[in-house]
């Protein structure tokens, strides 16, 4: 395929290898061929991908040259911050996944893991570091790893970086595959939670600033906040409680790990009704049932996909610790004067929201989904 259409001389939709090299260069042609697709589907060489590769690789060379020229300004010492650990872990994951993809001759997958995802991790790291700056050793490790991972696809590009920029001895072709520590999947999950939480907080901030009527109908936070210096009060509930906890406990007992199937919904709901009856909440069962059905479906799908850990009452990491370790990032991302992280299960913490505490009832936090309240900074 050429630009998503059948390559054919009769229609004029055709390029020889020599023409592609003359038009895009050998490096961009190889990049686009690797990105053309895996598996048994027809490969699709796309001109936009080749042109984008030229721009992207050129931009990467410029970034490396600028960083190496200002190498002395990078933060020294061993990786120690939360952002350092996340970036180091992302590199370990990229090394493992890219190696597997190359072994399976899945070149598009290798390009995704060893270039696109690694670039995204670097960009996120650069943003997360803020005023403290990036760690010197980690940045050089990234350049080394990135060069080795892209070498099978773009050997000319990798060789230039290896010899001219990194001043390495010998050829990158014979440098070998980079070593990696065992990836920390819990840390990766914690970082995804952090990034998702920042996106969620930004949406809540916009709703409060705009006083969205549409959001009000859905019961979300819509308290109007004047623009200016704002303070964010972020509330976390690290454990499911109430009917959600009951649902998860029932799902744990009704899940067959071998077949990865659950008992029928009628059986699950019947047990939930009995539990609520003992707690004196049977009268509210119809209302609770409407709320719990989407929750049950989501958790069942998640358990079938990743296993029984999806049914735990708590996340595998401390949400409060993750958010408190990244308050500076949250402030910068949301443009806040101040950020405070509290536990929604602590009455003293809830009282600090003052007249805005009712928003915690309207939009209660749950594991993986904190609630933010924004007030004028005094």
TrEMBL record:
SUPFAM superfamilies: Anticodon-binding domain of a subclass of class I aminoacyl-tRNA synthetases (SSF47323), Nucleotidylyl transferase (SSF52374)
Gene3D superfamilies: Isoleucyl-tRNA Synthetase, Domain 1 (1.10.730.10)
Keyword vocabulary terms for this entry: Aminoacyl-tRNA synthetase, ATP-binding, Ligase, Nucleotide-binding, Protein biosynthesis
Leucine--tRNA ligase RagD-binding domain location: 237-315
Top-level taxonomic group: Eukaryota
Region annotated Disordered, chain positions: 350-378
InterPro entries referenced in this protein's UniProt entry, alphabetically: Leu-tRNA-synth_Ia_arc/euk, M/V/L/I-tRNA-synth_anticd-bd, RBD_LARS1, tRNAsynth_Ia_anticodon-bd
Pfam families according to UniProt: Anticodon_1, RBD_LARS1
Domain Methionyl/Valyl/Leucyl/Isoleucyl-tRNA synthetase anticodon-binding: 84-214
Keyword rRNA-binding: no
Family: Belongs to the class-I aminoacyl-tRNA synthetase family.
The protein, known as: Leucine--tRNA ligase, cytoplasmic-like
The species this protein was found in: Camelina sativa
């Amino acid at each position: 395929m050429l630009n998503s259409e059948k390559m054919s001389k009769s229609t004029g939709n055709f390029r020889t290898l020599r023409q592609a090299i003359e038009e895009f260069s050998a490096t961009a042609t190889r990049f686009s061929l690797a990105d053309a697709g895996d598996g048994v589907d027809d490969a699709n060489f796309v001109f936009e991908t080749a042109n984008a590769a030229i721009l992207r690789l050129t931009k990467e060379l410029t970034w490396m040259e600028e960083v190496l020229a200002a190498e002395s300004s990078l933060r020294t010492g061993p990786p120690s911050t939360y952002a350092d650990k996340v970036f180091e872990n992302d590199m370990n994951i990229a090394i493992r996944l890219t190696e597997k993809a190359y072994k399976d001759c899945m070149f598009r997958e290798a390009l995704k893991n060893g270039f696109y995802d690694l670039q995204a991790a670097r960009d996120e790291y650069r943003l997360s570091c803020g005023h403290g700056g990036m760690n010197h050793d980690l940045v050089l490790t990234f350049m080394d790893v990135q060069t080795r991972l892209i070498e099978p696809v773009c050997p000319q590009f990798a060789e230039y970086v290896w010899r001219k920029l990194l001043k390495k001895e010998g050829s990158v072709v014979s440098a070998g595959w980079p070593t990696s520590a065992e990836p920390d999947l819990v840390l990766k999950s914690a970082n995804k939670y952090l990034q998702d939480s920042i996106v969620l907080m930004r949406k809540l901030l916009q709703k409060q600033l705009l006083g969205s009527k549409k959001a009000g109908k859905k019961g979300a936070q819509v308290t109007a906040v004047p623009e200016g210096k704002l303070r964010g009060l972020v509330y976390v509930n690290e454990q499911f409680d109430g009917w959600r906890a009951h649902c998860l406990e029932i799902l744990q007992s009704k899940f067959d790990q071998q077949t990865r199937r659950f008992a029928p919904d009628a059986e699950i709901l019947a047990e939930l009704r009995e539990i609520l009856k003992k707690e004196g909440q049977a009268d509210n069962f119809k209302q609770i049932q409407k709320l719990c059905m989407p929750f049950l479906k989501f958790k069942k799908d998640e358990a079938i996909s990743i296993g029984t850990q999806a049914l735990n009452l708590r996340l595998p990491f401390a949400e409060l610790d993750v958010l408190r370790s990244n308050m500076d990032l949250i402030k910068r991302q949301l443009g806040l004067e101040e950020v405070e992280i509290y536990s929604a299960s602590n009455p003293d913490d809830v009282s600090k929201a003052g007249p805005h505490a009712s928003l915690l009832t309207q939009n209660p936090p749950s594991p993986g989904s904190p609630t933010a309240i924004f007030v004028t900074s005094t």
